[in-house]
Amino acid sequence: MADIENAIEDVVRKRFAGVNIVRVDVEEGEDHDGDRVFFVNVVFDADIKDLDASRLSSITRHLRTRLFDMGEDRFPYTRFVSKADFEGAAA
Questions:
Q1: Three-state DSSP class for residue 71
Q2: Domain limits of the chain?
């Protein structure tokens, strides 16, 4: 699982190189259909306008390509949350 976590984090950090990514958390789980998936939470310290919409909309494609190259077919569900919102939710 560490290789998958590292690969996912690498893709996220490269795609959002100009954004301060605080952390990338990857959890294994099941979606509502019972399929095995990855839940990817990306915590960033920036204004939402600093996240390029085209990069947000294409991140799944880039993650899937990297995962397929590793022999992994689980779907990555991504969620981007600001550091302020993340810390507020943790309180």
A1: coil
A2: 2-83
The model's pTM is: 0.90
For the stretch 8-42, pLDDT in tens is: 999 999 999 989 999 999 999 999 999 999 999 99
Beta-sheet strands, E only, within the chain: 21-30, 36-44, 75-82
CA 34 – CA 31 distance, rounded (Å): 5
Q: How far is CA 80 from CA 7, 70, 72, in A?
A: 17, 24, 22
Q: CA–CA separation, 64 vs 60, rounded Å?
A: 6
Report whether 76 contacts 38 (CB < 8 A). Answer: yes
| Pair type for strands 21-30 and 75-82 | unpaired
Q: Residue 2 contacts by C-beta under 8 Å, 6 or more apart in sequence?
A: none
d(CA 24, CA 42): 5
Domain at 2-83: CATH code: 3.30.300.20
